[in-house]
Structures are given as C-alpha cells and as structure tokens.
Amino acid sequence: MDNLGRYSRQILFSGIGKEGQVKLLRSKVAIVGVGALGTVCANHLVRSGVGFIRLIDRDVVDLSNLQRQSLFNEEDVNLNLPKAVAAQKRLNSINSSIKVDAVVKDLNLDNAEEVLAGFDVIIDGTDNFMTRYLINDVAVKYGIPWVHGAAVSSRGMFAVIKPGITPCYRCLFPQVPAGRGETCDTIGVLSPITDIIGSFQAMEAIKILVGAATNSNLEQIDSWDTSLFSMDISEGKNSSCPTCVNHQFDFLDRSSSLQETFTTLCGRETVQIYSREKRERDLLKLGEYLKGNGKVTCNNFLLRFSPSEEISIVIFKDGRVLVHGTDDVVKAKALYSQYIGN
C-alpha cells in the first residue's frame, strides 16, 4: 500500500479518513478527453491518490490549448505530443506511486467497451454530444457511474449519472442536438470556468469512490456573472428511455443512423476522419510518400503533413486523421482523398 503520509491532510477530512483513502488507492478512473476539463480532473485525482487513471484523448497539444489546459506547456506543443502522453508525463512527475495509462485513440463504438469497461468511474472531459451519448451507452450497459461536465464561454455544468439510480444522459437529453451548439471555437471559453467545473467533477468522482452521497442536481454555473442554478434531476428518469429502460444502445450499434465517421473538433477548425478498417499505418513510409508535397514531421505517435500554410494533416498509427485548418467536412474529405487515400 502506498505511503499514506503524502495524503495526510486529505485523510484528516472526516468524509474520507484512512478507510476512504485506501478505497481511492484501489480505485480505477477513466477520463475521456484530456483537454480543459480532463486535465483539471486528472490533476486532482492523481494528487488525491486514485490508484489507476486512464487518459483517453484523440488530439495533440496545440498552442491555443495552453490558455486553459493546465497540464501542458510550450515544450509539449513544440514536441507535437499527443495530449494523453503529455498529460501522463506531467502526472507521473506529480505522483509516481500511482498508475497513469495514456490511450491515444478516438473513443468510438469500435473501442469504447474495451477501453472503458471495468472502471469504477468514468469522467466526461469531452467537447461533443456524440461521445457523451457513447459514454452513456457503455456506462449503462456495464453499470458504471460517470460524471458529466461541459464548459463554454464563462458558463459550465456538471451532473452525476449512476445507472439504475439516477436518470441517464439520454433521459436528460433525449434527442441528439441537430447542430454542434455553442463551442469554444465559436464563442470562446475562460479558463476559470473550466477549472471550476473540472474541480467539481473530480470532487463528485471522489465521493463515488469513497461511497459518499453525490450531488443529485444538474448544476449550472456562470463564472462571469457569479450565478448558480441547480436543477433537481433525481426524478427525471424517462420511463421509455431507449438506453436505461429498454437497453437499446444505439451509440454502440453500427447499424444505427446516429453514427458518424466525420466529426468537427472544438477549439479550432479541425475535422476528424475515422476509418473503421483496423490497420496500423507505416508512418515512415507514408512520410516518404508525402514529403514531396509539403512539410513532414514525424514521431513515434503520429505524422504531421502540411501541404500549405493553412492546412495541416495529422495521421495517427491507427489510421485516424485530423485535418487542421478547415471545419468544412467536404473540403476535409477532398484533402484526405488527395493525400492519404481511402
């Protein structure tokens, strides 16, 4: 067992104590999305002594992330590191006695169950609705509590979802929004609100892990106006919910019309292209092929190809591609077809 002395001030808190600390050290938490919310959550949970933390993120560290994503620095940008890897490196230097697992993948229906099953808590650090519905499907299917969080502009929200006890995410939000909604790419985001929401998410996760009562509200906070709105969702279960009542997991179903292959990412003009074909790319070979068409840089995790100053294409080993410099899916498809192929 880890040296409990480093957690002495936390153990003095009556809600945790030595027994609670031991539970934390034996716990496993998965954080989906290692951006503004995810880095805050990971930082708190590592310092609190959660024994195993899995970081799942599909993106690389960008200069614009540093304004709010607290585990990254300029060196991570210059090294072109995946967020999960950069965060793992920083967290290991904070607490080397716990295990941090970096998963550089897009969470999707092909890997979600494998990546998330078996954890005690899942934390939502994502920036899009589709991934949240996917998390909800896995959480309900395997009975895993999860903590939803979202932040944009100066506003944020969080809620605890416990399968079989509370309403699930689809009870609260029955329909997938037709549009992407407001994002940090369109209306911006302030770092204090991401710290606030991420900290509340981490606190609720700790409560779950030590067996304490959790917040039964959907909490909404505006850090600019210093306002708080609490909505009691304890009675919000939908008696005909496709997910938690009928166990219809549409976001894990390839035949469902709700699936996506092309998605835009929050924070900058980027389109992700995901191929379901499971094959590992030879990045060195691809780099040789592309270097006559633009600037190519490569490391052990990814290849970055820039055919122009405006466009940058990042290719991961698993075949996933990020097209930076556009949010036009048609243009992204054309660039992908032109340089990478089907």
Q: What's the shape?
A: globular
Low-confidence stretches: none
Helix content: 25-40%
User: Superfamily at the CATH H level of the largest domain?
Assistant: NAD(P)-binding Rossmann-like Domain
- What would CATH call the architecture of the largest domain? 3-Layer(aba) Sandwich
The largest β sheet comes out as: 8 strands, mixed
By oligomeric state, this entry counts as: single chain
Please state the average pLDDT score.
Answer: 91
Q: How many whole angstroms does the radius of gyration measure?
A: 20 Å
Intertermini distance:
50 Å
Structural class: alpha/beta
Number of helices: 12
CATH topology of the largest domain: Rossmann fold
What does this structure look like?
The protein is of the alpha/beta class and 342 residues long. It folds into 2 domains: 249 residues, Rossmann fold; 71 residues. The protein is 32% helix and 21% strand. It is built from 12 helices and 14 strands. An 8-stranded mixed beta sheet has the order 3-2-1-4-5-6-7-8, with helices on both faces. It has a 6-stranded antiparallel beta sheet with strand order 9-10-14-13-12-11, covered by helices on one side. Strand 1, helix 3 and strand 2 form a beta-alpha-beta unit. Helix 3 crosses helix 10. The longest helix has 20 residues. The mean pLDDT is 91.
